[in-house]
Amino acid sequence: MFGTPYQTADGTTVIPVTRAGGGPLGIFTVRAGSAKWVPAVDATRIVLVSLLIGLVTSVFAGVAMIRRPPWPDLRGDISGHPAWRER
Q1: What DSSP element (H or E) covers 85?
Q2: Fewer CB atoms < 10 Å away: N or C end of the chain?
Q3: Residues whose CB is less than 8 angstroms from the CB of residue 8 and which lie 6 or more positions away in sequence, other chains included
Q4: Average pLDDT over residues 59-66
Q5: Domain tally for the chain?
Q6: Residue pLDDT, tens place only, 76-86
Q7: Are 49 and 57 in contact (CB under 8 A)?
Q8: Residue by residue, what is the 3-state secondary structure of 10-26?
Q9: Whole-angstrom Cα distance, residue 25 to residue 39?
Q10: What is the rounded distance in angstroms from the CA atom of residue 54 to the CA atom of residue 60?
């Protein structure tokens, strides 16, 4: 939905654009006969998506490490080692 256009001191016409639900989308600026779209950036949404990606990555890494740890298996049986056969 387009808001009420207004004119700035330098002659630029600014037209706000919003979603039907009320959230901002951006603005159209018209200056010297050319129009330019400037999107509104929702920093909260960017942060939430980044946190969600990090959480999912951490869960997958944790599950992978529990199923097959990257460290060596130290539970081996040493009874077959040659040094133990001589005793």
Answers
A1: helix 82-85
A2: C
A3: 14
A4: 90
A5: 2
A6: 666 666 666 66
A7: no
A8: CCCEEEEEECCCCCEEE
A9: 6
A10: 10
Domain assignment present for 87: no
Q: Are the CB atoms for 5 and 15 separated by under 8 Å?
A: yes
Place of tokens 């133990």: 84
Same domain, 50 and 34: no
Distance of CA 87 to the CA centre of its chain: 61
CA quadruple 39, 42, 43, 47: dihedral positive or negative?
Answer: negative
pLDDT in tens, 7-43: 999 999 999 999 888 788 999 999 998 999 999 988 8
23 & 46 share domain:
no
Query: What does DSSP say about strands 13-18 and 24-31: parallel, antiparallel, or unpaired?
Result: antiparallel
